[in-house]
Specification:
The protein is α+β, with helices and mostly antiparallel strands. Helices cover 35% and strands 17% of the residues. It has four helices and four strands, in the order H-E-H-E-H-E-E-H. It has helices at 2-5, 21-30, 43-56, 85-91, and strands at 14-16, 37-39, 63-67, 73-78. The strands form two sheets. Strands 1-2 form a two-stranded parallel ribbon. A two-stranded antiparallel ribbon has the order 3-4. The longest helix is centred in the middle third of the chain and has 14 residues, at 43-56. It is globular and about 40 Å long.
Length: 100
């Protein structure tokens, strides 16, 4: 998705708050991930992840936000969406039309 829409302004940033650096690097390489990723193993990140788990019975990730070029959240969803319908709808099909 990133490769397909990056010229239209799509930016994807991955966040990981649970795995060590070596695990993350191996997983990103195996999946051939081409978008930037952030690894935050700080105590604060673990605390937020744990609090969300306690409250909702699941980890804080995967959680996705679709944010337009003005910084406004267009959509948000938890979990993996096969085919990313939220993103596809927002991106439209016109090749030179920027993200909303």
């Amino acid at each position: 998705m990133y490769q397909k829409f990056k010229e239209k302004g799509l930016l994807i940033i991955g966040f990981n708050v649970t795995d060590d650096r070596e695990i993350v690097l191996k997983a990103l390489a195996a999946a051939k991930v081409t978008f930037p990723n952030i690894l935050d193993l700080s105590e604060a990140a673990h605390k937020v992840n744990f609090e969300i788990y306690q409250k909702h019975g699941r980890a804080a990730v995967p959680l996705s936000y679709l944010i337009d070029s003005q910084g406004i959240i267009i959509d948000a969803w938890y979990g993996f969406s096969e085919g990313f319908p939220e993103v596809m709808k927002a991106m439209d099909t016109e090749p030179d039309k920027p993200i909303r």
